[in-house]
Amino acid sequence: MAEISDDAAEAGAMGAGTMGLEWHEGDMPYSPAFGDHFYCRTDGRLECGHVFLAGNRLPERWAAAGRFAIGELGFGTGLNFCETWRQWKAVRRPGARLSFTSFERFPMAAADIGRALSRWPEIDAERRALVAAWPDEPDDLVELRLADDATLTVAVGPALDRIETWPASFDAWYLDGFAPSRNPDMWSAELMDATFRLTRAGGTFATYAAAGFVRRNLLAAGFAVERLPGFAGKREMLRGRRD
Q1: What are the CA-CA distances from residue 34 to residues 12, 178, 198, 223 (Å)?
Q2: Which among 38, 51, 53, 110 counts the fewest CB atoms within 10 Å?
């Protein structure tokens, strides 16, 4: 999930934290403000592995990393974080540290996070740890040390405002806002420029989005961009690198 315009926020006026959250098919969260689900209806966890972890070549890079920093646009349910943390634990080198930072304007409540992630037993341990540590009223900066080797930071507020003043850079990015056709601000040239500035040399991004204007904005920001097959029959996704 990602950033919302003022009009969209009013459309989801059931509360800033949930944006008028609805539930489809039992435990699948849906935003009526954007007319979009929070993750792939086929299998959001597997999509995360295909797009973000494989797209950024993370398991291979982690095998040689002492410290690794991931940035994310749109924390949503925390699914990407939980699946990333699960895979990190399986392949990390001894003594390595993972930091995961996500930029999210409207954080969900702990109970909603827990419900949305309950469909995947594979990440049950990570889900429980996240829900137990999640604050009752997340605001400004949520900083969680969930293990000796894993920290989660969620910067609450408009993504561009937070990123432009963010003091750290990242090895990899997950670009995971709502669909570009429904939330174009989250894929704007200004935000892609800011993302590029916070990407370390050799750093990468991956995204399920393959819209033409998204690709052009990433190229204009300075990334080398390539198309790859998307998840679950989707024709394309994008990944790229700051050379």
Answers
A1: 9, 8, 28, 28
A2: 110
Q: Which has the closest alpha carbon to 138: 163, 173, 113, 168?
A: 113
Structural domain total, the chain: 1
How are the residues of the chain apportioned to helix, strand and coil, as percentages rounded to the nearest 5? 35, 25, 40
Query: Could you please report the per-residue DSSP string of 68-136?
Result: EEEEEE--TTSHHHHHHHHHHHHHPPTT-EEEEEEEESSPPPHHHHHHHHTT-GGGHHHHHHHHHHS-S
* Domain carrying residue 133: 42-241
Q: Does residue 6 sit within a domain?
A: no
Q: Where do we find the tokens 């996240």?
A: 130
What are 156-187's pLDDT values in tens digits?
999 999 999 999 999 999 998 777 877 888 99
- pLDDT above 60 (res 9): no
Rounded to an integer, what distance in angstroms lies between the CA atom of residue 175 and that of residue 72? Answer: 6
Domain of residue 186, CATH code: 3.40.50.150
- Kindly report, residue by residue over 131-152, the tens digit of the pLDDT: 999 999 999 999 999 999 999 9
Q: How confident is the model at residue 43 (pLDDT cuts 50, 70, 90)?
A: confident
Asked whether the beta carbons of 235 and 229 are under 8 A apart, the reply is: yes
Q: CA geometry: angle at 237 spanning 18 and 161, to 5°?
A: 45
Instruction: Find tokens 């930029």 and name the residue.
Output: 103
Checking if the pLDDT of 108 tops 80, the result is yes
> Rounded to whole angstroms, how far apart are CA atoms 198 and 103?
13
- For residue 39, pLDDT over 50 is answered with yes
